[in-house]
């Protein structure tokens, strides 16, 4: 029984799904936590897909200044309601995004933002690597390199129940 509770708690932590859903999916997957996690993540992706079209007119502008004060970031992250914008989890999520931008400075938000003339100079087989280095949404998350920023946003949408978008950002570095 104790192990089952630990599995449910761990699934909740990893996916952000409600406890009831974690318990239900764990039972459906015959107690296999890895399979249950996969199912819950897919459900989160489905939720994110359904939320994708909803407008995001609320949100926050979050700042991050590196400990040695040589790098600073401002990032605007939008959501659907001011209720979520004031939520502690949302604010922590935006701090993670700002820290990501400070650590791995992307010149572009997404693949669609990369100018055509730059893409023309990159061989087709090397574009995926270029996106991972230069597009925030395609970058591996610094705290969990197994997930991209896009996947982090998708799990935040599933956890908070609202559409979330990174609208824009600016990164400053002393001397540059």
Automatic annotation (TrEMBL):
Residues 72-95, 115-176 form the Translation elongation factor EFTs/EF1B dimerisation domain. InterPro entries: EF-Ts_dimer_sf, Transl_elong_EFTs/EF1B, Transl_elong_EFTs/EF1B_dimer, Transl_elong_Ts_CS, UBA-like_sf. It comes from the Bacteria. Gene3D superfamilies: 1.10.286.20, DNA helicase RuvA subunit, C-terminal domain, Elongation factor Ts, dimerisation domain. Residues 81-84 are annotated as: Involved in Mg(2+) ion dislocation from EF-Tu. It is found in: Cytoplasm. SUPFAM superfamilies: Elongation factor Ts (EF-Ts), dimerisation domain, UBA-like. Its main location: cytoplasm. Associates with the EF-Tu.GDP complex and induces the exchange of GDP to GTP. It remains bound to the aminoacyl-tRNA.EF-Tu.GTP complex up to the GTP hydrolysis stage on the ribosome. Belongs to the EF-Ts family. This is Elongation factor Ts. It comes from Candidatus Desantisbacteria bacterium CG1_02_38_46. The lineage of its organism: Bacteria, Candidatus Desantisiibacteriota.
